[in-house]
Design goal:
The complex is a heterodimer. By secondary structure, chain A is mainly α. Chain A contains 14 helices and four strands. Chain A is 74% helix and 3% strand. Chain A is globular and about 55 Å long. Chain A starts with 5 loop residues before the first helix and ends with a helix. The chains are: A mainly alpha, B mainly alpha.
């Protein structure tokens, strides 16, 4: 176990610890269904976190995720209301959000606008565009969407899984594979380690970086589609703080915000930790919702503090 | 005269002023009586006065944030600090109407002065925490302040117990609604902060130190600048400014809302700072520009309202302005227009 994998195991340990604590405190907590619900309720967050992992690994940041999810729900709901077929709507929104990501990538890489600002503009734009479509909630009564949303696959144990979970797990596997076993993934790590070195090594930095933001745009779009299945409505205020949750999950998963170190599997555990906090607070009953935020803040702090301690020696040699 | 004009054109205030002018002209066409200012009940009233009054919330934060950004950092927790500061003030002033006999008497939990003092101290402490993480532990500013951005709003809701606290204590209203000599009190606050900070940074070496840290932190440290201490205090000051803004907002709406007060303020403030010509890479700063940026944002918001589209569409226009401004600042973009320069240089050479 070296310095790079240590944060991941600490995260995993923390998750198991929290889950065990929850199970001891609340009688119904330790059941397969509660565990599956972690995935059902956080599928969209998990998908967004996978995309965010790539962005943060490359040393960037993307604030537009939540807004893009909201925009996706809005566009989907609006198009479905106009009797468009889901077979057209879903590819269309995915293409649109991917292009949105590409555009942000070009701003960041070609025009050298800081990721923070470029995606801030993207965040404003996507959120505002939602309101251009409608200020109110648009309900979705498309048959196909409803059936996907309601579909539950029953396990032999009597517990059930929704389709969203499968999309999430599939995407997480693809993300893991991309990062571990493809040239693209290794280039992402190289860029995060040192962009200049990556460039001098002859790696396609510009192309990879634009692809990273495109991928993140695609993930945001997919998270939006999954969220549409989950909520069955389009609303401009959906997912207001999703970008924060996604960043929090990635940080808790052991990915360094300076880039270069981290993993998709870590981010997934990060998502599960966020979900567990939420579940514990739900089970507890008397704790108010704002404790989630305070807890998440404390956890982010604990992780970045730990990371800064772990990285001290290398920092000083710089 | 010509020299002065070119110098003005090259100064960083030129573009923001142009944008503001364009916005004002558009507004003038859109709204009848946009430029009219009246004297009513011993104070100036009019759309322009209203814009200035409202722009102080972001303006004051933008001043503090400018210094943070000049050191090469960023503070995204200011929106939460606005909520916390307002929540503390509202909680401490309390303000319950108690019937004593036939008279309604207002009971405050603590005197107003102390409440305001505690709110500002708490805000500064938050900033010191941010500064500590950034200066001492060298944690990336965006991450260090992310902690309090996330947790801060939770803390604010904890203080207000998740509800909107209404303030009934009338003297408190003065901060956000009162006026002296016909001019809104908040403008005096903004002017005081702006003048003090400008004097301190421009008449002493502090401003230079801050810019030097923004260019290269390590080099500044080696050249004897107490880099950690300065970075620490810029964050503390930025949060202090956010605290003042929180009091203004809370007093103006006569209530404190832990969940929504100061929502998106961090983004608006960053936006104001960039429009004002401060580079996000650090190393140079324009305090006046930042305040101008805040006024531009408010003018933009007013314009959206008068067009009659949903106010939220504001965001789209904001994003386009952010995009345009950062494009103008982008070196690659500038170089596209400098393509013919070598040619003209050669021509001069032959002459």
């Amino acid at each position: 176990m070296n310095k790079k994998t240590l944060p991941f195991f600490i995260t995993l340990g923390l998750f198991l610890l929290m889950y065990a604590a929850g199970s001891l405190a609340y009688p119904n907590f330790f059941s397969l269904q509660v565990f599956i619900n972690l995935f059902i309720d956080n599928a969209f967050l998990g998908i967004a976190a996978v995309g965010m992992t790539f962005v943060i690994l490359s040393g960037g940041i993307d604030l537009s995720v939540g807004s893009v999810v909201a925009l996706t729900t809005m566009i989907s709901a609006d198009l479905l209301q106009r009797e468009w077929s889901p077979a057209v709507v879903i590819p269309a929104v995915l293409l649109l959000t991917s292009l949105f990501g590409t555009f942000q990538g070009i701003m960041i890489q070609v025009f050298r606008i800081q990721p923070f600002i470029a995606t801030l503009a993207g965040m404003f734009f996507a959120r505002g565009a939602c309101y251009l479509i409608s200020i109110d909630t648009i309900n979705i009564d498309n048959e196909w969407y409803r059936s996907v949303s309601m579909a539950a696959i029953e396990l032999p144990t009597g517990d059930f899984i929704s389709i969203n979970v499968f999309i999430f797990i599939l995407l997480a596997l693809i993300g893991w594979w991309l990062l571990k076993f493809t040239r693209f993934g290794r280039t992402v790590y190289a860029i995060g380690g040192s962009e200049q070195s990556a460039m001098l090594m002859g790696l396609p930095v510009t192309r990879t970086k634009i692809l990273i933001y495109t991928l993140n745009g695609f993930c945001s779009g997919l998270a939006g589609v999954v969220f549409t299945f989950y909520m069955l409505s389009g609303y401009a205020l959906h997912c207001k703080d999703l970008h924060l949750d996604a960043i929090a999950a990635v940080v808790m998963g052991g990915t360094l915000l300076t880039g270069g170190v981290g993993s998709v599997e870590g981010s997934i555990i990060g998502v599960l930790i966020l979900g567990t906090i939420q579940t514990i607070i739900n089970f507890q009953g008397t704790l108010s919702s704002w404790w989630t935020r305070i807890m998440v803040g404390v956890l982010i702090f604990a992780f970045i503090f730990m990371q800064s301690l772990l990285n001290r020696p290398t920092k000083q040699t710089q | 005269m010509r020299l002065k004009l070119t110098r003005f054109k090259e100064s960083n205030l030129f573009w923001p002023l142009c944008i503001l002018l364009v916005l004002l002209v558009i507004n003038g066409f859109l709204t009848r009586g946009f430029f009219s200012i009246q004297w009513k009940d011993g104070r100036l009233t009019g759309i322009l006065v209203d814009i200035l009054n409202r722009s102080t919330y972001i303006g004051i934060i933008a001043i503090g944030l400018t210094l943070v950004i000049a050191t090469g950092g960023i503070d995204i927790s200011v929106g939460s600090v606005v909520a916390i500061s307002g929540a503390i003030a509202a909680f401490l002033i309390g303000g319950e109407l108690v019937m004593r006999g036939s008279e309604q008497i207002l009971v405050t939990r603590t005197p107003m002065g102390i409440a305001i003092f505690i709110a500002l101290v708490a805000s500064t402490l938050i900033g010191m925490w941010n500064g500590f993480l950034v200066a001492r532990f060298r944690i990336q500013p965006i991450v260090a302040t992310l902690v309090l951005m996330v947790a801060g709003r939770g803390i604010a809701q904890l203080i207000t117990n998740g509800q909107i606290i209404t303030i009934y204590y009338a003297p408190y209203y003065f901060i956000g609604n009162g006026s002296i000599l016909g001019i809104p009190f908040s403008l005096y606050v903004l002017a005081t902060v702006l003048i003090l900070v400008t004097l301190i940074t421009r008449k002493t070496a502090l401003g230079l130190f801050i810019e030097s840290i923004g260019v290269n932190r390590t080099a500044s440290n080696y050249s004897g600048i107490k880099e950690q201490r300065i970075v620490f205090w810029t964050y503390a000051f930025c949060s202090f400014c956010a605290g003042i803004s929180g009091l203004l907002v809370c007093s103006n709406v006569k209530s404190a809302d832990g969940n929504n007060a100061g929502d998106m303020f961090e983004l608006d403030a960053i936006f104001a700072v960039i429009i004002g010509g401060t580079s996000l890479n650090g190393g140079k700063f324009r305090l006046g520009g930042a305040v101008l940026g805040a006024i531009i944002i408010q003018t933009l918001t007013t314009m959206i309202y008068s067009i009659g589209v949903p106010p939220q569409v504001n965001l789209v226009i904001k994003s386009i302005v952010v995009f345009a401004v950062s494009m103008i600042q982008s070196e690659y973009f500038q170089s596209l227009f400098r393509m013919e320069r070598p040619v003209s240089l050669r021509r001069n050479y032959y002459l």
